[in-house]
Amino acid sequence: MQIQVVKSKIHRVKCTGAELNYIGSITIDEDLMDAANIIQGEKVQIVNNDNGERLETYCIPGPRNSGEITLNGAAARKVSVGDTLILITYAFMDIEEAKVFKPSLVFPDEATNLLK
């Protein structure tokens, strides 16, 4: 049997952009993606702490050390610049593997979105 567990989490980052006229996705500072073990094109769940919205999209890397967190396309309607977001990815694994698996949890500076 396989179960789905949290693989990665970027906790409490600020939305820095909302680009409606773009072809979907979320742009994430590539340093944050690396720290959280998230790869380009991976599905990510976005939880908006300010308005309760939850959505899924795929991620694309943004400039390193920029703190960029931009929602693109239709997802841009679900956020406002400055909203506090939690970004989560999941993985399927065997239950025994899941019992010992340790997710990559990242807690960036909440004012700048940069790694501490």
Overview of the molecule:
- By secondary structure, the protein is mainly beta.
- It has a single domain (2-104), classed as Barwin-like endoglucanases, CATH 2.40.40.20.
- It contains two helices and eight strands.
- It has helices at 30-35, 95-100, and strands at residues 2-14, 17-19, 25-29, 43-48, 54-62, 69-72, 84-94, 104-106.
- It has an eight-stranded mixed β-sheet with strand order 2-6-3-5-4-7-1-8.
- A hairpin with a 5-residue loop joins strand 4 and strand 5 (54-62).
- The longest helix is centred in the N-terminal third of the chain and has 6 residues, at 30-35.
- It is globular, with a radius of gyration of 14 Å.
- The protein starts with a strand and ends in a 10-residue tail after the last strand.
- The mean pLDDT is 97.
- Its EC number is 4.1.1.11.
- Its main location: cytoplasm.
- Its cofactor is pyruvate.
Mean pLDDT: 97
Can you tell me the number of structural domains? Answer: 1
Q: Count of helices?
A: 2
Based on secondary structure, the structural category is mainly beta
Q: Please identify the top-level CATH class.
A: Mainly Beta
| N→C terminal distance | 38 Å
Characterize the quaternary organization of these chains: single chain
Low-pLDDT windows of residues = none
Order of helices and strands: EEEHEEEEHE
CATH architecture term: Beta Barrel
The strands making up the biggest β-sheet line up spatially as 2-6-3-5-4-7-1-8
Total strand segments = 8
Q: What level of helicity do the residues show?
A: 10-25%
Shape: globular
Reported by name, the CATH topology is: Barwin-like endoglucanases
Please indicate the percent range of residues in DSSP E strands (runs of 2 or more). Answer: over 45%
Sheet with most strands: 8 strands, mixed
Radius of gyration, whole Å? 14 Å
